[in-house]
Design brief:
The structure is a homodimer. By secondary structure, chain A is an alpha/beta fold. The first copy, chain A, has one domain: Rossmann fold. Chain A is built from four helices and four strands, in the order βαβαβαβα. Chain A is globular, with a radius of gyration of 16 Å. The termini of chain A are far apart.
Chain lengths: 123, 123
């Protein structure tokens, strides 16, 4: 059984999570039979190991993991492999397919460019 | 004269900036006569005050400022107003139109959802 985890940074301000919740809900609406959950690096819960191990206990065998980050810095390049190792210790049979961060998607960049130009009143 | 500043977080890892540079270059290609620059909160340069004051010195009178953040947490809600005040002290005539962060855009969220679903092999 498959599932999708959207991995985001997290913040102290609860308003911060809104776009990530909208992303999760959009995906759930489009794929009602796919389990889709958020996971956070810090400040918010669940953590990535928490949700992944809980999914494994629920019978999930394959997780697609997408970092909902624009830039791939230390959080994606350094912190994430450590979290994956932690999950592997606790749920060794679970397969996790880590995908490039959303900022690597050309169509996401194009949508951001559209937004920026729409907000810029060109003289 | 108008200009667009894309305000991003910044990171120690230089690879982090790639999606933001792609966004800037996409916008430049679409609007070759619009001055478009990146600015960073930390770790990378220029800072927002540096680029805004430099634009004012170049004759820019109106800046559209877009936070290239998915979540609006402390950086957008607390740090950014302080930077705007700092700019106002140095370039009081400069008009800056702060727009909602890119993560507030429905079409950006839709593009991220498309990307996530394309990367999720549904059984």
């Amino acid at each position: 059984m498959k599932a999708l985890i959207l991995f985001a940074h997290g913040a102290r301000d609860t308003r911060w999570a809104a776009p990530f919740e909208r992303l999760r809900d959009t995906i759930r609406n489009r794929q009602p039979h796919l389990r889709v959950e958020l996971a956070f690096l810090e400040f918010m819960s669940p953590s990535l190991p928490q949700i992944a191990v809980s999914m494994a206990a629920d019978g999930i065998t394959d997780i697609t993991l997408i970092p909902v980050f624009l830039g791939q810095g230390g959080h994606v390049l350094r912190d994430l492999p450590l979290l994956l190792e932690e999950i592997h210790q606790q749920a060794p049979a679970l397969r996790i397919a880590l995908q490039p961060a959303v900022g690597e998607s050309e169509s996401v960049v194009a949508a951001m460019a559209d937004y920026c130009l729409a907000k810029t009143a060109i003289a």
